[in-house]
Amino acid sequence: MAAESSEKWILNVTAQTPTNIAVIKYWGKRDEDLILPINDSISVTLDPNHLCTTTSVAVSPAFTQDRMWLNGKEVSLSGGRYQNCLRELRSRASDFEDEKKGIKITKKNWEKLHVHVVSYNNFPTAAGLASSAAGLACLVFSLAKLMNVKEDHSKLSAIARQGSGSACRSLYGGFVKWIMGKEENGSDSIAVQLADEKHWDDLVIIIAVVSSRQKETSSTSGMRDSVETSPLIKHRAKEVVPKRIIEMEEVIRKRDFPAFARLTCADSNQFHAVCLDTLPPIFYMNDTSHRIISCVEKWNRHEGSPQVAYTFDAGPNAVLISHNRKAATLLLQRLLFYFPPKSDTDLNSYVIGDKTILKDAGIQEMKDVEALAPPPETKENPTQRHPGDVSYFICTRPGRGPVVLTDESQSLINPETGLPK
Ligand code: ADE
């Protein structure tokens, strides 16, 4: 954990944190600086084996400033949100001593010592897959371990929240509720775990990363515009979401998939309706997103009960939650029928994550994709195929919360220099 000399020592910690997808959406802040939301939200944590952030943090008397490297490039830590997290963590740091290695850091010292942060997302930051949720959760979790912060995950979630709202939900695995809270200082705006990842482990999640040429409105400015101009958002926050939160908690407890799917789709649709109700209107979904909704709606109707739920965040990517492996297999066949890769794409990089779903779907090569028959629900109304409209698919599932990686080989920081490996 540290180098030998008392003056040159470097202490470091590495952690891995998942991303999450909201099934009852967070949209709208009541305090922009503290990141306090206007409604509760509920999310599913995604398996970090497929989507995660890994962050190493280090402290040393030799460091002259706080520095961060994200996905191989040095970036500034001077932004208000990073600074809020660093300040909150430093104020909660505890004494640390390792006599053998000659390291002694008192609570007071933490205020003066600088940190280095090296972080990687195992998915493209630009893909719009809530990288800031996993990223800020990982930053807070790893620094809390390094600084010997003796707070539980809920307290840490309130710190992560100040870095990126939805990051607070990435402090837990499984199903997580972000309680909006009432206090002006945000102390009760925290995440709590509703159920762990084993509670409902037959769910399978397929993410369609949708190709997009359009520059999207950032969530921060989109939310601000919605709060200022949308009449619908007030109705949503006061009347709709409080009831949905109660229902969703019950549905998750009972693992009632049809009710889960109906609520998840309805809440995604209302969030996008709020975006359309904003001045100027915000369009996060595109034609491909709409085609995916239509494919799911047609199939669910044809089956008579929901097989899959869709949800879309502030971008065109679809997150599709299927009831079980059988439904996920049938879903993937449909998705590959409508959205095959371009002919020169390698199938292996077109469907990533849990490849066993692809195998179960009987698809090994491009010729298997080409041979897919139109789904039975489209018999009366033949539908076109749209090669190239989806960049790739990620097959995943509900996953666990943050962990410390103890194997030194997993550290992203060189223990001698304190710089990225
Ligand atoms: N924003 C996006 N990804 C991040 C990461 N891994 N660490 C900190 N901030 C981020």
From TrEMBL:
All copies of domain Mvd1 C-terminal, residue ranges: 205-404
Recorded GO CC terms: cytosol; peroxisome
Annotated spans, Disordered: 373-392
Residue ranges crossing the lipid bilayer per the database entry: none
GO biological process, one term: sterol biosynthetic process
Biased composition (Basic and acidic residues): 377-388
Keyword terms of this UniProt record: ATP-binding, Isoprene biosynthesis, Lipid biosynthesis, Lipid metabolism, Lyase, Nucleotide-binding, Peroxisome, Steroid biosynthesis, Steroid metabolism, Sterol biosynthesis, Sterol metabolism
All residue ranges annotated as the Diphosphomevalonate decarboxylase-like N-terminal domain in the record: 18-191
Catalytic activity line of the entry: (R)-5-diphosphomevalonate + ATP = isopentenyl diphosphate + ADP + phosphate + CO2
Pfam families per the UniProt record, alphabetical: MDD_C, MVD-like_N
Function: Performs the first committed step in the biosynthesis of isoprene-containing compounds such as sterols and terpenoids.
NCBIfam families: mevDPdecarb
Family: Belongs to the diphosphomevalonate decarboxylase family.
Name the UniProt record assigns to this protein: Diphosphomevalonate decarboxylase
Organism whose genome encodes this protein: Scutellaria barbata
